[in-house]
Design brief:
The complex is a heterodimer. By secondary structure, chain A is of the alpha+beta class. Chain A folds into two domains: 56 residues; 91 residues, Glutaredoxin, CATH 3.40.30.10. Helix content of chain A is 47%, strand content 14%. Chain A is built from seven helices and four strands; from the N terminus they run ααααβααβββα. Chain A has a four-stranded mixed beta sheet with strand order 2-1-3-4, covered by helices on one side. In chain A, a hairpin with a 2-residue loop joins β3 and β4. Chain A is globular and about 50 Å long. The two termini of chain A are 31 Å apart. Chain B is α/β, with parallel strands linked by helices. Chain B folds into five domains: 101 residues, Glutaredoxin; 213 residues, NADH-ubiquinone oxidoreductase 51kDa subunit (Rossmann fold, 3-Layer(aba) Sandwich), CATH 3.40.50; 84 residues, Ubiquitin-like (UB roll) (Roll), CATH 3.10.20; 90 residues, de novo design (two linked rop proteins) (Up-down Bundle), CATH 1.20.1440.230; 55 residues, Alpha-Beta Plaits (2-Layer Sandwich). Chain B has 23 helices and 19 strands. The chains are: A alpha+beta, B alpha/beta. The interface between A and B is large, with 40 and 56 residues.
């Protein structure tokens, strides 16, 4: 168990101040921080699990629940907000039936509303983090985002069959 | 000939990588593909963002003399063949768009978009690391600090604190035989700001060089860059830059044979706005929850691992090589009496030409927004500009002649901040903007101080009520009272400035608050609960709205104007979205 993070543990377990790095690497490996993973990190580092939980819940990057294959990082930065990000969120929510932080029943998409992706000139923007890396989509409209989601879903169905 | 594709995050999101791939494939077809990107006389390179994000992807073609021969804009992959064939004249940048750049004065962005950020040779060819050499071989640490003082460089992260003063304090601090640290704050947290991202993506060595010079000045041998995890490209380019700098010997042991050691490592932040605050950032570097603590002791005395630590922002560091190489006086020649040099602004929102803009301090807002940014999108009217993000405020159109410098902007109730400039037009609701920022600070409050934790939530609740049409007489005064208490009762900058977006919108747009509260009407026709939809005479009776209405509120005969039953309308806006004739009126 947790063999994927063994090299990380060997490098960082004894180094003070490395908790966030360890949590980041663990999340990279498993997609989220499970209760078991937190208990394991506590055992290996000697940092109490309660404290690890405190750190994990403080930062927006960490997730305590499994995520979908594609994470839809919908930007709600100021520029996106004034350019209609609320409407884009509405379109995603309606189309997939999930709210911020939720995952679709088929495990394909997780919606993650983020503060700012820094691509403000292309607002409204969404970054899609998938198995093949991340791709950013700009100047979104409700129609554009709907067809993007359909495209990904179709690609996945095709790959599965 | 050299072809350069702009590949900052904005460019990549606009398809720059696909354009580069298309160009590479076409060049390879011509034969002679080499591993380093050279194709029989033509080199294909990538660079960071030149700043005119609204024109991405941008492809520059340099002639054999090294000069820029052509700049193609909106150069998508489909046009790659035309660019190579020289038949893409329609994509050549217009004089008007070229003026976006020519009106600027670039110090921080001197190399962005021009050099390949993944090749240290190009940075060095552009005069890079000469300032570090000069500092280490010809200047004492005190002289370096003095030069920064002459320059009048102030912290570009938001507070505008004199850089030399911080360096001097860290230099004089007693490390008790232990280490001192030089930290770069690259946790660009203001939503709507992307200056630091572009600098890191486009010219990472400028930041490394600035840090090394600062490290020498304060007597540190270790540098840490605390960078947002949301900026993966910036992190990659920094990693490459650090490795190359170590290989070239401009970082690491015995730099330039002077015996001075300085190394830099990267620490990825995990997403917390409050970590922009120095003591919170230090807590986060130590692997803790990023919660601020009382000052003093200041980081200069007790910072990272309780050792003397100096923290500056990305843009501040990127200015340092210029200051040392050209001299403080050359830097101080730009700007106003108290705000020296240039400042990079991220121009976004309802602006015609969004992007990165670097101008001398003191230029009127109007020149930035209209002169460089081309005014408002789609010919709408300019209403306000938001500066300073969640800690700043909205400056109304009537104050458009305010010079952009620390003191003048602070007088308006906003702050220069890190440089985000979000332009708003008549369709932006100012009450909603205040609500938006309070929603942000409420979420990002670390929870240590009661007034910030509970106060921002209470303010948000009031603002939400107002935007839902449930505002009450006395709400404005209540907001003002709470704002004062939160400012007084908060330990760090987050809480102390959180009420600013509310206070400035009340100050300049009180009529909009009153319109919401007393008339149950949103002046900008934005707040959903307060708008009404109606169908005008422009309706041709296509029935599309009626078919898309989820509640059956729209009725009418084919080819005759339709009508909306207000009792059934849920104000979803589907009719407006679907109308091809502009016949749905939102009030």
């Amino acid at each position: 168990m947790f063999s994927e993070i063994e090299p990380v543990m060997e490098k960082y377990a004894g180094v003070p101040g490395s908790l966030i790095t360890i949590l980041q690497k663990t999340q990279d490996a498993y997609g989220y921080l499970s209760e078991d993973a937190i208990a394991y990190i506590a055992k290996r580092t000697g940092v109490p699990a309660s404290k690890i939980y405190g750190v994990a819940t403080f930062y927006t990057q960490f997730r305590l629940k499994p995520v979908g294959r594609y994470i839809l990082m919908l930007c709600k930065g100021t520029a996106c907000h004034v350019n209609g990000a609320a409407g884009i969120e509405e379109a995603v929510t309606e189309h997939l039936g999930i709210a911020d932080g939720e995952t679709t029943a088929d495990g394909l998409f997780t919606l993650d509303v983020v503060a700012c992706l820094g691509c403000c000139s292309l607002a409204p923007v969404m970054m899609v983090k998938g198995p093949d890396g991340e791709e950013t989509y700009g100047s979104l409209t409700k129609a554009k985002v709907r067809s993007l989601l359909d495209e990904i879903a179709a690609r996945e169905t095709e790959a599965a069959s | 000939m050299r072809i350069v594709v702009g590949e900052g995050s904005c460019g990549v999101a606009s398809g720059a990588k696909k354009t580069e791939a298309a160009l590479a494939a076409l060049l390879a077809e011509r034969g002679g593909a080499a591993g380093d990107g050279s194709y029989s006389g033509i080199t294909l390179e990538k660079a960071g963002c030149v700043g005119n994000c609204y024109l991405e992807p941008v492809v520059d073609v340099y002639g054999d003399d090294g000069g820029l021969a052509a700049r193609y804009v909106r150069a998508t992959e489909e046009r790659a063949a035309d660019i190579l064939a020289g038949t893409a004249d329609d994509l050549l940048i217009s004089d008007e768009d070229a003026a976006f750049l020519s009106q600027q004065r670039r110090i921080v962005l001197r190399n962005a978009g021009l050099i390949n950020p993944e090749k240290i040779e190009e940075y060095i060819a552009a005069g890079g690391y000469e300032a570090l050499r000069k500092a280490l071989t010809q200047m004492t640490p005190e002289e370096v600090i003095e030069e920064v003082k002459v320059a009048g460089l102030r912290g570009r992260g938001g507070a505008g604190f004199p850089t030399w003063f911080k360096w001097d304090a860290a230099r004089n601090a007693d490390a008790g035989g232990g280490a001192k640290y030089m930290v770069c704050n690259a946790d660009e947290g203001d939503p709507g700001a992307f200056m630091d991202r572009s600098v890191l993506e486009g010219d990472p060595h400028a930041v490394l060089e600035g840090m090394a010079i600062g490290g020498y000045a304060i007597g540190a041998h270790e540098g840490v860059i605390y960078v947002r995890a949301e900026y993966p490209l910036a992190i990659t380019r920094l990693e490459i830059a650090i490795a190359q700098a170590e290989e070239k010997g401009v970082l690491g042991k015995d730099i330039f044979g002077t015996g001075y050691d300085f190394s830099i490592r990267i620490k990825a932040g995990a997403g917390a706005f409050v970590c922009g605050e120095e003591t919170a950032l230090i807590a986060s570097l130590e692997g803790e929850r990023g919660m601020p603590r009382l000052k003093p002791p200041f980081p200069a005395q007790k910072g990272f691992w309780k050792q003397p630590t100096n923290i500056n922002n990305v843009e501040t560091f990127a200015n340092v090589p210029f200051v040392i190489r050209e001299g403080g006086a050359a830097f101080a020649a730009y700007g106003t009496e108290k705000s020296k040099g240039t400042k990079v602004f991220a121009l976004a929102g309802k602006i015609a030409k969004g992007g990165l803009v670097e101008v001398p301090m003191g230029l009127p807002l109007r020149d930035v927004i209209f002169g460089i940014g081309g005014g408002i999108k789609a010919g709408r009217a300019f209403k306000a500009v938001q500066m300073g993000g969640p800690s700043g405020g909205c400056i109304p159109a009537a104050l458009a002649d305010t010079p952009v410098d620390y003191e003048s902007i602070t007088q308006t109730g906003a702050i220069v901040g890190s440089g985000g400039m979000i332009v708003m037009d008549e369709d932006t609701c100012m009450v909603d903007m205040a609500r938006y920022f309070l929603d942000f600070t409420r979420k990002e409050s670390c929870g240590k101080c009661n007034y910030c934790r509970v106060g921002t939530k209470r303010m948000l609740e009031i603002l939400e009520r107002i935007t839902l049409g449930e505002g009450r007489d006395g709400d404005i005064e209540l907001l003002e009272e709470l704002a004062g208490k939160i400012k007084d009762g908060s330990l760090c900058g987050l809480g102390q400035t959180a009420p600013n977006p509310v206070l400035t919108t009340i100050r300049y747009f009180r009529n909009e608050y009153e319109d919401h509260i007393y008339n149950k009407h949103c002046t900008a026709h934005y707040c959903k609960a307060l708008v009404t939809y109606a169908i005008t005479d422009a309706c041709v009776g296509c029935t599309k709205c009626a078919r898309n209405c989820p509640t059956g509120a729209i009725s009418g005969e084919v080819k005759k104007p339709h009508g909306i039953d207000q009792a059934k309308c849920v104000k979803c806006g589907k009719c407006e979205e679907n109308c091809a004739f502009g016949a749905v009126l939102r009030d």
